[in-house]
Description:
Blueprint: E1 8-11, E2 18-19, H1 21-34, H2 42-48, H3 53-60, H4 67-80, E3 89-90, H5 94-103, E4 107-115, H6 116-126, E5 133-137, H7 148-156, E6 164-168, H8 171-179, E7 183-187, E8 208-210
Parallel strand pairs: 1-4, 1-6, 4-5, 6-7, 7-8
Antiparallel strand pairs: 2-3
Helix pairs in contact: 1-4, 3-4
Amino acid sequence: MTARKFDTFIFDLDGTLLDTLPDLTLLANRILREVGYPERSESEILSFVGNGVRRLMYQALPEGAPEEITDRAMQIWNDHFQEYFEHTHPYPGIVDVLQQLRARSVRIGVVSNKLQAGVDQIVSIRLPGMIDDMLGESPAVPRKPDPTGINMMVRSLQTTPEHTVYVGDSAGDMRAAHNAGLFAIAVRWGYNNPDNFADQGAQAIPDAIVNSAEELLAYAVD
């Protein structure tokens, strides 16, 4: 069956365009040390990724940790996240695919549960000049699966849901895309197994799954 064609691609960031887990682990463990709690393994940090920074740190801290410790952890995160980017890199094929999409005049956006300042920084370092607009979590943009950020990005890119695909690596990404009326593509190289998304309801089931970045080009206008 011929793939649907779209002239606008909106991407999740962590686990979709960029492998940020090594730096997330380093920063989270720095914070845990500073607030006096045991460090976590990379696999543990991975299990906390996807619902925003505060939720990640809440889960990384021991159960019952005082709220003021979570607040302190977030303050340390905000003070030092900009130092953690050396181990973050695009997944294989991503840079080439973004360049090919741009060559086809495809609009490209990012909507992430990462804090806006973190999105701005890491995209400017690792994907410079490749993204037309980007949104992270902020007072105006709640975390996915709330569709607000995707809806805002569709308007910013001056397109419509019918012409837009959302690409992500989590069930929350798929729900957010469907909540916004978009075609939803799940990637197999990210932090979650798309074969398990159906366990989280019909809205979490991807419209398509890709095994490599290059397969995304089949969904782009020529």
